[in-house]
């Protein structure tokens, strides 16, 4: 979305000026690099430092609190009370990698997609490993979207499509103002089906599964310009350590969890408060979250206002004031995943999580997220 859901990298935190006017990520994230990323980042450490020193990241929100990681760890790892629940795991590095993926999907810089300093045709780009190229591609996508260019697989890579183009549902948001809530919900649930079937290791959804041929209605069309892509190319490009079925499954789950987490961020989705005692249809053991009134759209939001809804204190308020809250929902999904629940049996829960309110309305910036009107020059001593 027009610059607001950009990767936060811990290594940059001490190097960038605080209080930047950059856009913000819903439920902020401070990723930890995989083994391959760490090795590549070590190789290019001086390059990264030079980029920081030159101010390459000014105007791009790359620093933030690890809210996405915090939610994921609280939901998937055992808490101090020793509660024995199926979702508890000791090692969740690949689920966390999947949660990161929606914000920083690796992409190959293709010939003909621009002439940018720091970019080499055929090179796999991540923010940590190719910072100058990453920033330039990001800003190019941002400016193209501002001009009204519709970014798809025909003219954009995963990074710009996720933030500014046809894949913005990866953050539980609409592509543009006026999108029907049914359409945004449909896009979210199609991605949920893909990631779930991959996460449980369903036949045909493994490393070699061809993305554009997967039997999911409404999914293949998103990748019709990427005919040769396999699932491992989508989730593990440039990272051979992730090219194992069990790891890829966890990455896919993490990507789904990112969408779910973002849907509880007020800058992304307006929900009604959950009704005490309400449950999902036919399942008394599934407390029902508040239904969706509006999926917001980012292009006309105020970045600063959006960012204020992404801070740890916003998460703390949400956790105290809502049941089920985002951690409850993520934990339920993790329990279903651990049980190997087939998609047809998991789908009702996700449909419940993204249920529309009776008065659900088309997307907009959302109440409280529009920019303030310009100051009147006749006031303030002007």
How many individual domains?
Answer: 1
Cα shape: globular
Helix content: 25-40%
Average predicted local confidence, pLDDT: 81
Radius of gyration from CA coordinates = 20 Å
Largest sheet: 2 strands, antiparallel
Tally of DSSP β-strands: 6
What topology, given as strand order, has the largest sheet?
A: 1-2
Structural class: mainly alpha
Query: Which strand-content bin applies to the residues?
Result: under 5%
Segments where pLDDT lies below 50 for 5+ residues?
1-25, 27-32
Run of helices and strands: HHHHEEHHHHHEEEEHHHH
Head-to-tail CA distance between termini: 35 Å
Count, helices = 13
Summarize the structure.
The chain has 13 helices and 6 strands.
Task: Give a verbal description of the structure.
The protein has 382 residues and is mainly alpha-helical. It has one domain. The protein is 37% helix and 5% strand. It contains 13 helices and six strands. It has a two-stranded antiparallel ribbon. Helix 3 runs antiparallel to helix 4 (93-101). The protein is globular, with a radius of gyration of 20 Å. The protein starts with 34 loop residues before the first helix and ends in a 29-residue tail after the last helix.
Task: Sum up the structure in keywords.
382 residues; mainly alpha; two-stranded antiparallel ribbon; two-stranded antiparallel sheet; 13 helices; 6 strands; disordered N terminus
